[in-house]
């Protein structure tokens, strides 16, 4: 009878065709210029090992196939892995099999790291005692090798008659036969019934319900005959497995011996006085009496300082819990030339200045034409310079909105591996806290700068004069609305994110703040803008939405435009109390905002 079931993943548990075919499409186009418009033409990639399929489909040699796989994984890590869904009825099947006391394992040609993430993402990891896939370095790419390591991990190498593999392609059936275990083909996946019938599995089912009935039915028939069934529970508890289950040595049976693999998540440890084999990850979150764990739950190979996780913001650090610790699988940074990177950073600034120049001169020419002479036209322009600035802002908002959207689409299309900011909902209370924080921090920055031996320059004085001479409505619309929107789209939405592509969060925040300050053209105003720009970058990184960043900028400009003139009329005592309150609010609200775990951009 079958008391142990190994499942394939793609086309058996989940419908992953869209993610796989889009990543193959991306890899072929990027590396070899091969364009495949119809994704269904790439359905043959769902199931079999990638390398063999790339070689067969695109007539690539082994080296070219490896390049294609690297490009495929670029997109798959952040996009393709989630372009996926669980087949209807599969969670119920797994739950029923577990309750029946059957042992479940996963044996897939997909890398183990991706298998585990997919199962965790869909809440299916809990049902599997072992999860075995291929390795990033190309080892264990054949289905037979995956099955053998799964049998080893389960301690079933000498009990193969009790194991059955469930899969949707001929590769699954053929791998099972070579390993000497039974097989069940599922026709609801990516392999046709004709393909399965040609390879002669032990059984073919058309729905998850049929699969459940076949497996549970044969298990109950065997129980009625008195056959032993290996239960998922153990003497040490109903939910965990003995640390040396299925093996006579501390580490045999834990996914095989290569570097970069971690122990199963159900409580496996290392007997005290011994060490785990090199390259294994030991989860601290499942302690067992009599077993010890390395510091931080890791036991990495020699040279572990070179281990990179899949977050370019942390280029030299240990993997997080549940991630593969594979030193031979580094994540390459974006390969772009330095001139291109500089151009990508600088040309939005040039567009900003060009837009301002064109709008300003067009309006000035218009004024000259209306007034009939240059001096009169220039005088009208001077009186309405803030309104002209507002028109430049509107043109910039349109232009930078297009660039911002194009950047976002490019990241999604290319499947870049760095974190991608995502918009999330925020409550009125959070917006209120950010508003008060922005108001207070602006006052504190002004106070700090006022203590420095600096004086405002002509640019700042001219701007102040222009703002002071304009009516309230124009000041509100230009200084407090159009200006912040245009600046946030440019400096946080475009420049900060592009800098972040190359140098990580911290340096991107600093450099974008410096550029923001320099762009103001005045030392006094630029210093204020630079410090506040750093705060805005932190807010953007923390909340993940440009809207809350724009809101903070609007509140700050409202304060500077309308409240600061009133503040200068306060008495000495009132000014002192006001400054103390702002300092306290800056510290307290800064802690409230940034200590709360609202980072939605963590990998």
Order of the strands making up the biggest sheet: 5-4-1-6-7-8
| Radius of gyration using CA atoms only | 31 Å
Give the low-pLDDT segments.
226-334, 415-420, 598-603
Secondary-structure-derived class: alpha/beta
Q: How are helices and strands ordered from N to C? A: EEHHHEHEHEHEHEHEHEEHHHHHHHHH
Q: Describe the main β-sheet briefly.
A: 6 strands, parallel
Tell me the β content.
5-15%
Helix content: 40-55%
| CA distance, first residue to last residue | 43 Å
Mean pLDDT: 76
Number of extended strands? 10
Number of domains: 4
Overall shape: it is elongated
Count of runs of 4 or more consecutive helical residues? 18
Entry summary:
The chain is of the alpha/beta class and 603 residues long. Helix content is 55%, strand content 6%. Helix 10 (338-371) packs antiparallel against helix 15 (472-518) and helix 13 (428-450) packs across helix 18 (572-595).
């Amino acid at each position: 009878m079958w008391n142990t079931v190994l499942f394939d993943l793609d086309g058996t548990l989940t419908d992953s065709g869209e993610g796989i075919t889009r990543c193959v499409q991306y890899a072929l186009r990027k590396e070899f210029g091969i364009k495949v418009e119809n994704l269904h033409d790439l359905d043959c990639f769902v199931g079999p090992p990638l390398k063999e399929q790339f070689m067969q489909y695109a007539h690539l040699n082994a080296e070219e196939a490896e390049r294609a796989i690297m490009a495929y994984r670029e997109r798959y890590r952040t996009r393709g892995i989630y372009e996926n869904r669980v087949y209807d009825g599969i969670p119920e099947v797994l739950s029923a099999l577990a309750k029946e006391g059957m042992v479940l394992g996963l044996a897939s040609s997909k890398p183990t790291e991706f298998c585990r993430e997919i199962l965790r993402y869909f809440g299916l990891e809990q049902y599997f005692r072992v999860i075995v896939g291929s390795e990033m370095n190309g080892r264990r790419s054949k289905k037979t090798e995956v099955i053998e390591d799964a049998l080893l991990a389960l301690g079933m190498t000498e009990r193969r008659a009790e194991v059955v593999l469930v899969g949707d392609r001929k590769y699954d059936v053929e791998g099972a036969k070579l390993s000497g275990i039974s097989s069940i083909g599922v026709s609801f996946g990516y392999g046709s019934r004709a393909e399965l019938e040609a390879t002669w599995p032990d059984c073919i089912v058309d729905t998850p319900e049929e699969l459940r009935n076949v497996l549970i039915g044969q298990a109950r028939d065997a129980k009625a005959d008195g056959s032993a069934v290996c239960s998922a529970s153990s003497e040490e508890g109903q939910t965990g497995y003995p640390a040396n289950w299925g093996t006579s040595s501390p580490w045999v049976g834990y996914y095989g011996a290569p570097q970069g693999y971690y122990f199963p998540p159900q409580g496996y440890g290392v007997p005290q006085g011994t060490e785990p084999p090199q390259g294994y990850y030991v989860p601290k979150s499942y302690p067992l009496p009599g077993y010890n764990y390395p510091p931080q739950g890791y036991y990495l190979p020699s040279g572990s300082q070179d281990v990179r996780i899949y977050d370019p913001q942390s280029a030299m650090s240990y993997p997080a819990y549940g991630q593969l610790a594979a030193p031979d699988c580094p994540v390459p940074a974006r390969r772009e030339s330095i001139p291109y990177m500089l151009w990508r950073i600088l040309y939005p600034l040039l567009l900003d200045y060009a837009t301002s120049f064109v709008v300003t001169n067009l309006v000035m020419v218009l004024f000259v034409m209306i007034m009939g002479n240059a001096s009169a036209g220039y005088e009208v322009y001077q009186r309405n310079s803030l309104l002209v600035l507002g028109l430049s802002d509107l043109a910039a908002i349109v232009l930078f909105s297009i660039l911002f959207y194009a950047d976002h689409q490019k990241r999604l299309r290319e499947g870049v591996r760095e974190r991608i900011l995502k918009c999330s909902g925020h409550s009125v209370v959070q917006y209120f806290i950010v508003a008060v924080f922005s108001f207070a921090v602006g006052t504190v920055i002004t106070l700090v700068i006022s203590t420095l031996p600096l004086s405002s320059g002509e640019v700042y004085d001219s701007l102040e004069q222009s703002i002071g001479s304009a009516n309230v409505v124009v000041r509100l619309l230009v200084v407090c609305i159009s200006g912040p929107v245009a600046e946030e789209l440019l400096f946080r939405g475009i420049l900060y994110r592009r800098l972040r592509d190359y140098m990580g969060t911290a340096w991107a925040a600093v450099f974008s703040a410096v550029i923001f300050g320099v762009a103001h053209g005045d030392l006094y105003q630029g210093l204020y803008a630079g410090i506040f720009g750093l705060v805005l970058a932190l807010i953007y990184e923390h909340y993940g939405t440009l809207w809350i960043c724009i809101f903070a900028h609007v509140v700050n400009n409202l304060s500077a435009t309308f409240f600061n003139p009133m503040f200068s009329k306060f008495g000495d005592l009132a000014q002192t109390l006001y400054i103390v309150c702002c300092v306290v609010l800056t510290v307290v609200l800064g802690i409230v905002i940034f200590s709360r775990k609202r980072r939605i951009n963590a990998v």
